[in-house]
Amino acid sequence: MAKCPIILLLCLPTITFGLCPDALAKCYCGEAEYLFKKQYIVNCTNTGFNNTIPLQKLPDNVEVLIFTGNNVPELPINLFGNSSNNNLKIIDMSNNKIKIIHGKAYHKVVNVERLILNHNELTTDASHHPRLFSNFQNLLELHLTDAFDDNSPENFASLLHNIFLESDLIKLRKLHLEQNEIRSIKDHMLFCSLQNLMDLHLGDNKLEHIKFKINCLRHLRFIDLERNSIVYLNKDELSELDVLPHRGQNLTIDLSENPFSCGYQIEEFFSWLNTTLVNVRNKNKLKCKHDPKNSDEPLFLNLGQSCHLKQSVTTNTQESSSTVTFLSLIIVAITLLLIYTNREVIKNKLLPVVLSLSQKVHYTTIGKNEAHEMDV
């Protein structure tokens, strides 16, 4: 029966066990389909390695390395030894408890296009080795989802900027930084050195604003900001987003599941949603939250629906006002017509009642006057 290790994204049904070098005896080696392409894979998932020495014995024809679920706190210099791995295109080293990556750890891997370091514990000491990714001359995708420890300092963005700048990732197209507890990006130029960046993933962080420049990115097409802490976006932030489509770039942004407040410049945000050339993904599902202390207002307001309603609110209000006035005049006219048509009946019915009431009022007035005089 074909063996099939548990790995992310794919199952490897065609790999034959036992084709690895002795140092990688715990791994699976062989050809299999990976990302819709048949490639030679070395898969060392949950193999219990506590160092990377076996990786110095990779087969020369390896194209995909999956080294996940192990316990390797440090990646040393020349991780793969002194031999060149010119065929290696994908490296997945997720979930290895990696804390430190030494400079030149990834040596002689110039043809790698995808590096995945998700779910590790990289410390901010990585700033001491800003050229972490300097050997990835052809890197297209960098996956750093939940890759850093949860105690990142305030200057975390500046540290990343140094890494990006020094590593010279000029071909990078996709950058994943989800789930890294990022609260703010004070270095506005953080991503500007990534000149060919197309997709920027910042979902599931704690960002309150979009404080980074994007007009320096000539190829940017998508920004993921799902599930952050955005309460409102100010005029400058909205203008920064508009720069790209105004110069001909197609930009999509995802702001889903952010805690927008209905009280913070929400009118400006309404107007922007209605007029912007930016494609706001899931716009009709955006919601803002009212002050829960005000019981007279709904707790949530669907921003997307409100935008559609707002577009027609002025004309609808005018039309509604005219309609109400017209209907009121019709009702008054019908009422007057009925009274006129039945005037004799109404006169005969109401006249005795009026006379009777008039007499009662007359007697009551006399009685009150008499009582008043008796008190005197």
Written description of the protein model:
By secondary structure, the protein is of the alpha/beta class. It has helices at 156-167, 235-246, 266-275, 303-341, 343-375, and strands at 28-33, 38-43, 64-66, 74-75, 90-92, 100-101, 114-116, 141-143, 174-176, 199-201, 222-224, 252-254, 260-261, 279-281, 287-289, 300-302. The strands form three sheets. It has an eleven-stranded mixed beta sheet with strand order 1-2-3-5-7-8-9-10-11-12-14, with no helix packed on it. Strands 13-15-16 form a three-stranded mixed beta sheet. The chain has a two-stranded parallel sheet with strand order 4-6. The longest helix is centred in the C-terminal third of the chain and has 39 residues, at 303-341.
In brief, what are we looking at here?
By secondary structure, the chain is of the alpha/beta class. The protein has helices spanning 156-167, 235-246, 266-275, 303-341, 343-375; strands at residues 28-33, 38-43, 64-66, 74-75, 90-92, 100-101, 114-116, 141-143, 174-176, 199-201, 222-224, 252-254, 260-261, 279-281, 287-289, 300-302. It is 28% helix and 14% strand.
